[in-house]
Design goal:
The chain is an alpha/beta fold. It has helices spanning 3-7, 70-77, 100-107, 127-137, 144-156, 173-185, 203-220, 231-237, 255-260, 265-273, and strands spanning 21-34, 39-54, 59-63, 85-90, 93-94, 110-113, 191-195, 223-228, 240-245, 248-254, 323-326, 329-331. The longest helix is centred in the middle third of the chain and has 18 residues, at 203-220. The structure holds adenosine-5'-triphosphate (ATP), iron/sulfur cluster and magnesium ion.
């Protein structure tokens, strides 16, 4: 894929604008060990050649069925996992080549909010120390300023500052996720990976937490990679959406356009399964046959071909490139005569 094409990522975006984050050919293959000597007998190709750019201040959704590789992309680009291959450039710096000190420095600007607020907060630490720890790592707001900063952050996410002496188990799921958000924001990052930040929460409080995140994003001008299952939530809060399937990107488009004019058969099927808020839009429900294939042995050619209703013999031969089909709208499918 040409540089220029990926740079044209966001509609109305100047082609000259430097992306904040740039991912090229990112791969994460988890080795499978077997036999008596624990030799490597294969690999789970969780992420297999992913390319995209994020521009400053945009919120980009990353969607796809369970197991498509979304979490792995989020963790590998932050180097919480060591990628098998590829390039990650953040603010013009090569993240993959960074040593420990440089990485710690970069992490001030790149934070993550985890899916499970029950597992991601240390149960033995008070809220003050959970958030304070993030400050300590980067030597920010030390001494008397620490408590003050924790109080400010808690207030900002809707938790009473006097509750900082409490432990995670004393809070509800929604409150814990607010604490997780405060921890991520403590160091004033520019970029946040939010990995299904509301899917472990009660439906009744999901909207509140999404609204809080949206307010914070706008107020602080954050760039966010928002990983989610729910296409409706993603369309509501994201500028653009990236659709993944079996470790690869199938489509990238501005949110409204992905919804109104999907170009990839996988996106078409995902959308057909999502509830439609506008009753005047009628959609045919497409049932995807069978399960997502194993990333240990993905189909040849187009990885979606075993479930694609438009597949032709050529789809087994060619790996479709992600190409721009309309301004800022990319798809990885060899057929242009179908949607
Ligand atoms: N540490 C690991 N070792 C081996 N395989 C892994 C590991 N982590 C993830 N995988 C596999 O990689 C693939 C992608 O997983 P990942 O968690 O990134 O998917 P996901 O899109 O985030 O799914 P979900 O929507 O369920 O969170 C899956 O097949 C998963 O089983
Ligand atoms: S390349 Fe072929 S199998 Fe893949 S999405 Fe397009 S039509 Fe379907
Ligand atoms: Mg996940």
């Amino acid at each position: 894929m040409g540089e220029q094409r990926i740079h044209a990522g966001k509609l109305g975006q100047s082609q000259q604008e430097e992306p904040l984050l740039s991912i090229r050919d990112l791969k994460m293959h988890f080795p499978i060990k077997g036999g008596f000597f624990g030799r490597r007998v294969g690999a789970v190709k969780a992420v297999d050649g992913v390319n995209f750019d994020l521009f400053r201040g945009e919120v980009v959704g990353l969607v796809g069925e369970s197991g498509s590789g979304k979490t792995t992309v989020g963790r590998a680009l932050l180097r919480l996992l060591e990628p098998t291959g590829g390039e990650v450039t953040f603010k013009g710096k090569n993240v993959i080549a960074m040593n420990k000190t440089q990485l710690r420095e970069a992490r001030r600007d790149m934070q993550i909010i985890f899916q499970d607020p029950f597992a991601s907060l240390d149960p033995r630490m008070t809220v003050e120390d959970i958030i304070g720890e993030a400050l300590d790592i980067h030597k920010l707001h030390q001494g008397a300023g620490r408590k003050q900063r924790v109080a400010e952050l808690l207030e900002r996410v809707g938790i009473r500052p006097e509750q900082m002496v409490r432990y995670p188990h004393e809070f509800s799921g929604g409150q814990r996720q607010r604490i997780g958000i405060a921890r991520a924001l403590a160091v004033d990052p520019d970029f946040i990976v939010a990995d299904e930040p509301v899917s472990a929460l009660d439906v009744s409080i999901q909207a509140q937490v999404v609204n809080l995140m949206q307010d914070l994003q706008q107020e602080l001008g954050l760039t966010v990679l928002f990983i989610a299952h729910d296409l409706l939530v993603v369309e509501y809060i994201c500028d653009r959406i990236i659709v993944m399937y079996l470790g690869k990107i199938m489509e990238i488009a501005p949110s409204h356009e992905l919804n109104s004019d999907p170009q990839h058969p996988y996106t078409e099927a995902l959308l057909s399964a999502a509830p439609v808020p506008d009753p005047t839009i009628k959609r045919q429900r497409i049932i995807l046959q069978g399960d997502i294939p194993s990333p240990i042995n993905p189909p040849s050619g187009c990885v979606f071909r075993t479930r694609c209703r438009y597949a032709i013999p050529e789809c087994a031969e060619v790996i479709p490139a992600l190409r721009e089909v309309k301004p800022g709208h990319f798809k990885a499918c060899i057929r242009d005569d179908i949607l």
